[in-house]
TrEMBL record:
<dbReference type="Pfam" id="PF07992">
    <property type="entry name" value="Pyr_redox_2"/>
</dbReference>
<dbReference type="InterPro" id="IPR050260">
    <property type="entry name" value="FAD-bd_OxRdtase"/>
</dbReference>
<dbReference type="GO" id="GO:0016491">
    <property type="term" value="F:oxidoreductase activity"/>
</dbReference>
<keyword id="KW-0274">FAD</keyword>
<dbReference type="InterPro" id="IPR023753">
    <property type="entry name" value="FAD/NAD-binding_dom"/>
</dbReference>
<dbReference type="InterPro" id="IPR036188">
    <property type="entry name" value="FAD/NAD-bd_sf"/>
</dbReference>
<protein>
    <recommendedName>
        <fullName>FAD/NAD(P)-binding domain-containing protein</fullName>
    </recommendedName>
</protein>
<keyword id="KW-0285">Flavoprotein</keyword>
<feature type="domain" description="FAD/NAD(P)-binding">
    <location>
        <begin position="2"/>
        <end position="284"/>
    </location>
</feature>
């Protein structure tokens, strides 16, 4: 059996490892654009703060691939898939035949048209090392973080940790304006002001907040997968690669896992993307089991969480306001904490929590078990 895994991040590496556990004799090739061995993206903010040394980021030794008899092809891109003849074309000129193929290519940071030596993103190890270099060479300078996403929160947390005077700029009326209500969003803005940030809502461009004069500009406007080459292969895509609950794509014997995947979410009852580390690990494992002929469905309550200079911000389950029949609010801006419950067909399907970490377990269990909001005892 020949397994080819495209993507050397946590979903792809987990899948390759699981495949080897399940089949000692299979041919396994792991293709990744990164030149680095697998590292923890979760630890990148801690590395940027100087709390974790570089060597602690790496999750495997370079010898691990050979020890597991996994052919590792770093610095290599997949350019095309031939689903009829079952092979992939790589940027190094090789064509790899496959019996089972996994797409685990993740996403890339969305970029802005603004360019400058002072600009940094925050998605990869390379991005992080560029940020560290800028902050060291421009210590004592002024920073701007642009965006209302979780990545923007991580950047703000790093800037504020280093005591850099920072503008927090975003297009909407508050951060996460597509999922947070006014009280939740303004609570985040209140906290940013309290810890010394200059909050600038309604900022349409970086130039409008003085990016050309700033010493360090961090951009966090989301992540998106590269789908063009997958679409060209005739594989169904939407916002991500569309899969079943078993992570099967529309092409036979082709699977997807991790941030690139738009999967059938059996917990909330519709297709979702779950761009977070725990889901990527679990999907890599489930995809591998299905590739090895051991049918299994992916079932998990997806969650995003960050701590913004002392304020916990959490999203659980389906937090798309457009798909909620009702949104119930617990807490208030004045009380210092707000939880939103997203309700569909009488069941809790998602939630956001700002400053109310204690609600997380109860809410997650309610989503997992399909419970009505009335069953929760949140105060």
């Amino acid at each position: 059996m020949r397994h080819v895994v495209i993507g050397g991040g946590i979903a792809g590496t987990t899948a390759a490892e699981e495949l080897r556990k399940l089949d000692a004799d299979a041919e396994i090739t792991l293709v990744g654009e990164d030149h680095e061995i697998i590292y923890s993206r979760v630890l990148l903010p801690h590395y940027a703060k100087g709390l974790v040394p570089r060597e602690k980021l790496f999750l495997k030794k370079e010898t691990w691939y050979a020890e597991k008899n996994i052919e590792w092809m770093p610095g290599t891109r997949c350019d095309a898939i031939d689903v009829t003849n079952r092979h992939v074309a790589l940027s190094n000129g090789r064509e790899l035949p496959y019996d089972k193929l996994l797409l685990a290519t993740g996403g890339e940071a969305r970029t802005l048209p603004y360019e400058g030596e002072n600009v940094c993103y925050f998605h990869s190890l390379g991005d992080t090392e560029h940020l560290i270099s800028l902050m060291r060479s421009r210590a004592g300078g002024r920073g701007i973080v642009y965006g209302g996403s979780f990545i923007a929160c991580e950047l703000l947390d790093v800037f504020l940790y280093h005591h850099m005077p920072t503008v927090a700029a975003f297009r909407g009326p508050w951060m996460f304006h597509r999922i947070l209500d006014a009280d939740s969003g303004e609570l985040v803005s209140d906290h940013l002001r309290a810890v010394g940030a200059d909050v600038r809502p309604g900022s349409e461009t970086l130039e409008s907040v003085g990016a050309t004069d700033a010493d360090v500009v961090g951009v966090g406007v989301g992540v998106e997968p590269d789908l063009a080459w997958i679409r060209d292969a005739g594989i169904a895509v939407n916002k991500g690669v569309v899969t079943s609950a078993r992570l099967e794509t529309s092409a036979g014997d082709v699977y997807a896992a991790g941030d690139v995947t738009e999967f059938e979410d059996l917990v909330v009852g519709r297709t979702l993307m779950a761009g977070n580390w725990p889901s990527a690990v679990m999907q890599g494992r489930v995809a591998a089991r299905n590739m090895a002929g051991k049918p299994e469905e992916f079932r998990n309550v997806s969650a995003y969480a960050t701590n913004l200079a002392g304020l916990d911000i959490i999203g659980v389950g389906d937090t798309d306001r457009a798909f909620a029949d009702e949104i119930r609010i617990v807490g208030s801006r004045a009380a210092g904490g707000v939880t939103q419950l997203f309700v569909r067909a009488g069941k809790v399907v998602g939630a956001t929590m700002v400053g109310r970490t204690g609600d997380r377990t109860q809410v997650t269990n309610a989503i997992r078990d399909g419970l009505a909001p009335e069953t929760l005892s949140l105060r």
